[in-house]
Amino acid sequence: MAYPDVVSQKDDRVVGADGAGLSEDDLLLLSELAKGVTVDRVGRRLDVSGRTVRRRLRGICDRIGVATAIEAVAWAARRRLI
Questions:
Q1: pLDDT tens, 23-70?
Q2: Which domains occur in the chain, in start order?
Q3: Phi then psi dihedrals of residue 16, to 5 deg
Q4: Would you call 22 helix, strand, or coil by DSSP?
């Protein structure tokens, strides 16, 4: 029996109360942005291009229903995922 405010692990995705699945890489990306690291530097740290980071970020925003990266970081922080 799962409670809505409990975060559970399914495969490599973290599923929260609202059903938005974020992978560990997604959470890492958001946590780096929360620290103030630029998109290009996040890309270098994840060994992908800055364009790939922006594409992944757009996907994250679409999945959780926000419009900007700042909102995505705030969304994850409010849920204590980062």
A1: 999 999 999 999 999 999 999 999 999 999 999 999 999 999 999 999
A2: 21-78 (1.10.10.10)
A3: -105, -165
A4: strand
